[in-house]
Design goal:
heterodimer, A: about 425 residues, alpha+beta, 5 helices, extended, B: about 270 residues, mainly alpha, 10 helices, about 85% helix, globular
Amino acid sequence: MKKRYLIFCFLLISFFLSSVEVFSAAPPKKREIVYSLNVWDGKDYAAPFYPASLDTIYVMADFENVYSVKETLVYYWPITREYMADWDGLNKDVGETLEVLKGNRVVGEYKKVDYVFYYPKGYWGGGTQLFTGENARAKKKEYDRAMDKYWKEVDQYYKAYDEYNKKLQEFYKKIQEGKPAGKIPVEPKQPKAPTFYVTDVSKAYVFSLPEGRYTIRAKDKNGKIIPNTVKTLIAFSHRREGIGYNIIPESKWTYPETADDSSDIIYQYREGTLYFQPYKEWEFNELEYNKLSKPQSAGRSDRWVWVHMEKASKIRLNIFSKNNLISQIRERPYYVEQIPGSALGYNIRLLDRKEYPYATADFTAFKFSVPPTGDYKLVAVDNNGGIIENSDRYIRPITATDARNIFIASFGPLIVGLIVYIIRRVGR
Amino acid sequence: MSYRWVVIRSIIKREARSSFFGLGLYIASTIACFVSAFIFNSYINTVEGNNIMVMASPLNTPLFYAVIVATLYTAISSSTALSREKDKGTLEVLFYGPVDHLSVILAKFFEDIISFLIIMFLVTLYFVYAAIATNLGFSISYLYAVILSIFIAGSMSSFGLWLSSLTARIRTSVLLLIVIMGGLLGLQFLQNYILTLKPEDLSLSMVYVMGILSNVLRVIRWASPFSYLMNGINAVALGSTSMYIENMLGALVYTVILLTLSVYTLKWKGVRKV
């Protein structure tokens, strides 16, 4: 009996001890050979890293991705429950060649090349492009030249500004003295910094792969396979393309909804105005897409997700009611005007470029005022009038104002039952 | 037609007539509709509050709850079917005629399916009204969900019949059903709830609980008729044909196994009140 108690207490204590949160300020680090990637996720380049514990790498097929094999310090971070790399602690390039195999056949052997990332609208502006080899070096030179030119212009600007200040002081002095001062000096224009950005030239393996399942491994300069570099590589593609919508309701313009799948129905409370912002979208397997940028995250292989790739341009929206075209909408700029006074509220107004040529729009969208009744179908068409696949959505105004009738109707089956029951009783 | 089918048909006719003229079936339908009304109400509130709501198949969620109620009715009805007759001694009398174990089990099973179809018919009428009144509209996925629900009802009924074949008292059957079904349903809702939590919000102990739970559910996935229902509804929502067919076939295999088990259990336990 005592023995049983002891075993029970031991198990109980073990359970509680195992459940205690471990707060470790400095988690233990382990030297590991890892893959560090820059992968195209459809919108930008993500930078996932694959510790030794992960055996499958996910990349998007037919897009150039950057692969590096590194030796670094890996530690487990309990707060986010994932392995992290201490790049500042150790960041050593490993290997000379990267091999890609399909089955047992080597389909690609890659050497490190120079590469840069080119950000046309600045680091945070999106639209990142990858350049390799000579193009990379040329792009970097272009950026360096632009920066040199900019710094020279800045230097000249400060000199000109000093000159301008002196001339301005003279100008005011002459005015104070009552002497003819001539024309007021013109302030020099501030130079504009380059809007684009190019990273430093780095070396890595850069290549694209067609859709498929591969094996990847790194080899050293003697041609030997480096341990822990053999991994499965899945190059995946999208299943469907379509148009997804960000929908801004007029009454809550800062809370947009999304309708990404054709099966999504947009319900509007009675009549109201909706602003549609269409995006080109691709549909990916959820597991593969999640693993692409966050290899340690979860995902379901039986689920599909739509990903907005870029804003859809040169399209218009057609609205149908019972297969009749009732409206053709074009994209327009809108601005939000706060109601004057202390009361809260706003109006969304069309930005008239003729009236306000320099004003900026709060958003651009396709406006549709939903009538109080009926069913509507929205379809995106291209410049040639062709319907874009997977761009259709149904819009339905919700007509019920309260659910009282719906609750009352739920007693319908009971009434039917009582009638049947009474008929049966009377029939006897 | 073989004598067995004649027997099955007569028992089905008798049982279905009794169900149709009783109130139980209509009360179950009313509960199913009433539960769904809460979901319709939440839709109206959401659209009213946000002015907009985007949803693929809004009728699927209320249908899911309606199917739970309807299948529970089926399970309760089937779990008491044999034990009640054993308790009253009518099952023993029945066996003095040309009735065997298989015909009794099949007759009870098909009678349950007929009752379920009547409930679903009434529920669908109610859904038509609610969809028109709110303008939520019908989608083809509703039909898919209803077809799948028949297979789920089959697995629930076979599970109930097996429980009923084990016991000789109505009270024991119902209690057993409530405990087992409540446990299974509770575990599944618990897992669904945990899945909605962000991993970083979970304490380590919760992660362990989740790990244990997922192992338990891996077993339950094949043993619980509710898992076929939940996975089926998921398949409809995701539009996954393979998952849909997999669930349908899974439920069918489950039903056949449980019905076979019920026949053998009835043979083993006997038809007399012990």
